[in-house]
Amino acid sequence: MLTNGQVLVAGGAANGAVVSSAELFNPVTGTWTPTGALNIERAYHTATLLTNGQVLVAGGICDQWGDVVSSAELFNPVTGTWTPTGALNAARCGHTATLLTNWQVLVVGGTATGDYPLSSAELYNPSNGTWTNTGVLNDTRSAHTATLLTNGQVLVAGGYDSNLYNLASTELYNPATGTWTLSSLWSSETTWNWYITNPPHTNSSGGGISVNYTIPGWQQGINMTTNHGSTTMRNVPDVALTADNIYVIADNGTGYSAGGTSAASPLWAGFTALVNQQAVANGGETNTIGFINPAIYAIGKSTNYTADFHDITTGNNTNLVSHTNFFAVPGYDLCTGWGTPTGQNLINNLAPPDSLGITPTSGFTASGPAGGPFDVTTQNFSLTNSGLASLDWTLVNTSSWLNASPESGALAVGGRTNVTVSLNSTVNQMAEGIYTADIWFTNLTTGVAQSRQFNLLIEGTIQNGGFETGDFSYWTLWGDINTTFVYGGFYGSVTHSGNYGALLSTTGSLGYISQTVVTVPGQKYLLSLWFNNTVNPAPGHPATPNEFSVAWDGTTLFDQVNMPVTGMLIGWTNLQFVVTATASSSVLQFGFRNDPWHFGLDDVSLWPWPIATPSFQSITQSTNTVWLGWTALPGLPYQMQYKTNLLQPNWINWGSIVTATNATMTIPDVIGPDPQRFYRIEWVPTY
Fold first, then answer.
1. Residue 268 backbone dihedrals phi, psi, to 5 degrees
2. How far is CA 465 from the centre of its chain?
3. Among 12, 384, 418, 443, which residue is least crowded by beta carbons within 10 Å?
């Protein structure tokens, strides 16, 4: 969709041939109009709307034989013409193109001629029309998806690899470092029991109490009340791994599905081999882990348990004979033991990779609403020296929302010190989303570096304010709501940003949506929302009757009836209100009626007041363009201004108001004849 609301369709395939034609769809008249043709025929390309209003088309195939091209071109909606721009470094089709917050375009993966998936990625710089290679994907992939996250990173998911196998993996691109990180967040596991899930099979996870062996010392000290274990006899199992939905290739290439605890045993053997590999690499051939049970149980009883194991708390191994034993419970149980390993965390705990020991083996995960408070704010790490000589250490913290202290030091043999990592005030101005950061500890004596990852989950004070769940999750609907829906991005009249927006439409009476939000009594908040009063594009349809209202805790903030098609609220409008909470929860309510057509509602947000003053965070120059970046709150409008002389009485607006889509925003200014320019950025209140 172009900035003028029209939709551009360019290229593609028709009747077995690749075409170069392009057309424009006018949603007001419902008609298509031919526009300038592409310079070459192309299909399976990408089209990206740039911040200057032009459209970048890149790659694709140019003929029915599937020849892949590297060329790219720009569509100018003012002139309706296409102009060649810099060519991709690699010819590709079936790739993705994502507009980053720094206004560059990230092109990822795709397929080369011959249907060979690619792992390369490139960046397009609209200021000079050139492409630059950036970090390489961990997997080759084509026909995947790419999504810009609120923290500025790009999530790539799925697709197929060089063997044409479907991929379930995901990767995150960090524009700050130009690198990709495999992203695989553990969701959940449950106890294997075909007696419950796959009758008439009776196979299930083993577990129980030995009648021959007494409880070993390392298994003592566990509360056996909930798990029905024994405090005098040996309990099994100790640990668990995958036992169901396993695809096996055996018997001269025969493939089949299998399940059973016998699958978990070789998996644990392989995992233990990785532990020994690390132990030997750091301590010599005789430095193997040996009998790991005492170490496993020590970890399970420690505060480091959840960092090293996935605790399985659902399911059971009951059967026809035993109806009450046993059930998975938090901590150790007789279905899955301590659970499944988290991977490298457990390896590092069983075989420390260096004489510089760092516990715990993972950083914290903090969560809370935008503006705070957060459930976790601080974590202490213990640094120890298990070597035969003193060592010097340092840490690197590149996160803007974490503080770490101290940042360096020395440890004598057997010495110990503490490092405190905590959230700083930056988190209170960050947008809702999922953020990750790594702090690296380096043993300067050996050169070995170890990282600890920290996760920050910021939940909007308004839950699902952008309707990005694709439905009305967290919202309550009542009244006349039969024609009220959440629609995807193809429905531009209801989607202000992101992929979804709310279509509000009722006939004859009001419908309502509301949400109860967590608030602090006495605290003021800035309520911001984007509203669109649309009109039926078919000729002869009236614009009224209609009504839209906003209420906070029963107090009406806004209520307008029969808004005309020429009124101030035609097109997307940002409504802002300063509200005060009187209790620990407050109710936000929207009322709506639009008999002839519908309203659009999107990007509803609530921020603690006063709003922090925006400040420039970066300034860079690329050829004849200056790029300025500032801190922002998504959904709020900002205006950049400049002076050529600070003695000038008035600031000059640069361009139009920009609505922030991320916690950091950038804007370019082409260097002109002025000898110098002084810039400032201001939040523009609209109430």
1. -70, -35
2. 16
3. 418
